Amino acid sequence: AQTVTQSQPEMSVQEAETVTLSCTYDTSENNYYLFWYKQPPSRQMILVIRQEAYKQQNATENRFSVNFQKAAKSFSLKISDSQLGDTAMYFCAFRSGGTSYGKLTFGQGTILTVHP
Amino acid sequence: DVKVTQSSRYLVKRTGEKVFLECVQDMDHENMFWYRQDPGLGLRLIYFSYDVKMKEKGDIPEGYSVSREKKERFSLILESASTNQTSMYLCASSFGGNIYEQYFGPGTRLTVT
What is the mean pLDDT of residues B29-42? Predict the structure, then answer.
């Protein structure tokens, strides 16, 4: 079974600065997908960014980028130019590339607070 | 815009009651999921369904059952609620295929007293 570990329960950053959230995972598979989801306070969880394991290039979405290290099984999220609206809980998630019906395995979550 | 709705934002039930949590999605998604979210544990999968009337156990199915009679609706049932089922329950849906993201509902915070 796959496991996903987020070792930082809480992080904080000043507005306009850069912060990196860590995620490691354990799998014996070669083909899989990784996701970062954001859950703002009292609001619905939304997808931030996704990475296909077969792609060497790190995914980017505006101010959000990942550092995907397949051999190290590491998938960190970098938020540049942090904004107050980035305050949320962030979850790293793993999905098998095989027949899994889209099931996700989530990490424990990291609460990020952006200070003005 | 994809919309996933859940029947209640907050629910308070007594121990031993039968509890129904309903989830509806409007995007014709094949897959639907029920998770519970607890501090320090992240989201854990309770049950999922990949088609009407089809269901599969997730990682923590004990004490729960599900029903999917229509494609857009997925219900979570607590047959006899217990205090250790006090939690946030999140529903999600997605298209079939592993590349597709899951879309989440707003969650139901259930308290069992």
Answer: 94
For B96, the token pair is: 């079939």
* Cβ-contact B86, B96 below 8 angstroms: no
CA–CA gap between residue B35 and residue A14 (Å, rounded): 32
- Candidate from A43, A50, A91 with C-beta closest to B43: A91
Is residue A106 within 8 angstroms of chain B, CB to CB?
Answer: yes
Distances (CA, A) of B61 to B4, B58, B64: 22, 6, 6
CB A49 within 8 A of CB A64: yes
Q: Indicate yes or no: CB of A96 within 8 angstroms of CB of B98.
A: yes
Beta bridge partners of A52: A33
Q: Report whether B55 contacts B66 (CB < 8 A).
A: yes
Token representation of residue A47: 């997808």
**Contact A102/B41, CB-based, under 8 Å?**
no
| CB-CB neighbors (< 8 A) of A101 in chain B | 31, 48, 50, 56, 96
A47, pLDDT greater than 90? yes
User: Which residue do the tokens 């995914």 mark?
Assistant: A59
Rounded to whole angstroms, how far apart are CA atoms B92 and B33?
Answer: 5
Residue type, B32: M
What gap in Å lies between CA B50 and CA A69, rounded to an integer? Answer: 31
* CB pair distance less than 8 Å for B42 and A46: no
Write down the pLDDT at residue A96: 87
Classified as helix, coil or strand, A84 is helix
Report residue A88's pLDDT band, with 50, 70 and 90 as the boundaries.
very high
